[in-house]
Amino acid sequence: MKNNYKSVFDIIGPVMIGPSSSHTAGAVKIGRVANKLFGMVPPKVTVHYYESFARTHRGHGTDYAIAAGLLGFAPDDSRVPSAPMIARQGGMDLRFVEEEGESPIHHPNTAILQMTGDKTRVTVAGCSIGGGIIEIRAISLDGVDILPAGPLPIVIFRDYSKRMANALAINTDLEEKAPFTRRQVLRADDCDIYVYDIKKPMQPATIAYFEKKYPAAICL
């Protein structure tokens, strides 16, 4: 989607450990999103590749890129190529599966990450669309299926108190500091989930503001 590219530098590609902006830098970002949604480095991850990712993930460094993102590394971190070894040495059960057939989220560069812990199950379906830019097209969180518009940024707020005042507060803050194009309200057993598709990239200071004021908010 052309609206994902905010400047010519996005099209050229990011500063990164190569070889590919789509298969490496974008894959790191998918892994980082998964890390943020899980809330920590997940102990067990199965990565399902589709189409182009399934055919080329070894040669293009997608495996180490995904692992690096799961560990919270940036695309230009010198540890990216060693990430699978670092992850497994840290106790992560990390597996890669080459799936046959079309991507369930309709993009050739698709990775679906299934993460499990003692009591946590999170699934993220992302695709790398070029220039290190990604879309997150499906999330399963707290037993609830979320279908964002795709492009980042996305803000997810889990309100465990289920008090309307909390939702109104973050809604007002977002309208002022990070306007959104769409809001979804979903119900889990133990919380209400608010999903916001944000219009423009969020500055680091803005992300820090929301994550400090709203500890249950996830800024992707």
Automatic annotation (TrEMBL):
InterPro entries: ASB_dom_sf, Fe-S_L-Ser, Ser_deHydtase_bsu. Its EC number is 4.3.1.17. One of its GO terms (molecular function) is L-serine ammonia-lyase activity. It catalyses: L-serine = pyruvate + NH4(+). Gene3D superfamilies: D-3-phosphoglycerate dehydrogenase, domain 3. Keywords: 4Fe-4S, Gluconeogenesis, Iron, Iron-sulfur, Lyase, Metal-binding. It comes from the Bacteria. SUPFAM superfamilies: Serine metabolism enzymes domain. Signal peptide: none annotated. Pfam families: SDH_beta. It is an enzyme of class 4 (lyase). Its cofactor is [4Fe-4S] cluster. Residues 7-89 form the Serine dehydratase beta chain domain. Pathway: Carbohydrate biosynthesis; gluconeogenesis. One of its GO terms (biological process) is gluconeogenesis. The keyword Transmembrane does not apply. Belongs to the iron-sulfur dependent L-serine dehydratase family. PANTHER family: L-SERINE DEHYDRATASE, L-SERINE DEHYDRATASE, BETA CHAIN-RELATED. This is L-serine ammonia-lyase. It comes from Limosilactobacillus reuteri.
